[in-house]
Amino acid sequence: MPGDLVLVPELLAPADIADCVTYAPGQLPDEVVRGGVGFFVPDYIDSPNPEWMARFPALQVAQLPTVGFDAALTYLPEGVTLCNAAGVHEQSTAELTVGLIIAKWRGVDRAARDMAEGAWKHRRGRSLQDSRVLVVGAGGVGRGIADALAPLGCHIQLVGRSRRDRIAGADELPDLLGAADVVVLAVPLTAETDGMVNSAFLARMADGALLVNVARGPVVVTDDLLAHLPRIEAALDVVDPEPLPADHPLWAAPGVLITPHIGGDTDAFPRLARQLIARQVQRWRSGEPLENVVAP
Amino acid sequence: MPGDLVLVPELLAPADIADCVTYAPGQLPDEVVRGGVGFFVPDYIDSPNPEWMARFPALQVAQLPTVGFDAALTYLPEGVTLCNAAGVHEQSTAELTVGLIIAKWRGVDRAARDMAEGAWKHRRGRSLQDSRVLVVGAGGVGRGIADALAPLGCHIQLVGRSRRDRIAGADELPDLLGAADVVVLAVPLTAETDGMVNSAFLARMADGALLVNVARGPVVVTDDLLAHLPRIEAALDVVDPEPLPADHPLWAAPGVLITPHIGGDTDAFPRLARQLIARQVQRWRSGEPLENVVAP
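^ inputs. structure came back:
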């Protein structure tokens, strides 16, 4: 029956789902299959294909394998429910955040480069103990980062959209920036956060502070960041533009560590994504409410 | 009076201690001062000087700025009390351990090298979630590592000299090695641990497992490790020999990340070391028992 099929990337196909069709990266199925797709899982970061949604006339649900959904919103057909992968990437992103801060402050990145020359260069590092970390974004990723950092003895302040409990509100952010040793960006990309980290934001950061972006590249205005390096330092898992062209000045900017958007992508990802997809297909088929609905 | 003076490296001199003489790295004081030294703090890793102990005829206490005390034992004069810096480095070493595991499993080291070529190379990483970590050494450093790793969702097994509570004994180690995704070395260098990680030890480690050495270089037999790379991977903050000569094959061995013995050396170190030294001098002068006595 049109709309009964589930279309999933090969890597993310759960084991026990009826009427499930898998696809290899970039391989759009034939017209018969396309007409039957009711539940679609777009591919992961390497082969983004949210525009396929418009090719499935019977589509009801698009289940993203990512937490971020800004790119998919643009292509979302009328009447299709969009779900993200909250719960699947938080731990991996939190791990990477901890790893990036420690790598930067202990010089693991410089040591990796020194290895090529056989250079043993002892340098004193900076400890997270007693440091002040501001985590901008109080969703699952932000809270996961705070949990992972807590046992390292730093003082953590979460910043959400509005004040609640021990979470500061976005209106308090300008006053909090100056006192932070580390500012971690863990916000979704929205109209409010697009370009949020501009010259005014960066100018408030203390000398020697570290900016960590594990959110989305466009949250930071790249040219503004370049102007503040190396007065502040930066560890960036996401950048704008992405992928960063080989001749972009950010690659060689002083005080920067760049990883190629690997925040949520670990061996834990396919396992947790398969579990989520299986749960969602079951809910969809039995008419229960879906998890993680982000639009409409 | 002979034996009243405290001799401390400039960097580690507490603010409020009477009869305290400081020295710059490598600058042995004149004969008059040497005759008066009763409490001596050797220098840190860059300028080791435990052999100075023999030059202070009135010496009563040598307070090391390190946790490891193997090098100092060789030079310890009869009747002198040797104390280590337990409590000063644990957190910094635990942080580095977490950072090294994440750097290795997420490819932060490769990303740092890719930056030089402007190369954006996305690769799937490995998550600590549900991984099995064996921490060999159940002293302050080992326990600090376990505490720092706990919130990352891995299964941690501490191994001590003898079985107690939930700590496994050294006799169980051979059977535990094969099931570990990560083996962290956090033991002191002693007659038992010198060369402990040899071919027999490494052969028991699973394919693709990661060996992390934040203990002392000679705990691992370097040539044996070279023979097992890259079947297993390694993140080494300490190596044998140290510093590693520029032409040593370990620098270019596949699957290795090397940092130059920075485990305990962060900005937290001088602060915590000064606090420890101030406490110890006060105890010594008031005849109270010293902390951290490791010999005789």
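Chain B touches chain A through 65 residues (CB under 8 Å). The domain at 90-258 of chain B is CATH 3.40.50.720 (Rossmann fold).
thumbs up if we can close this ticket
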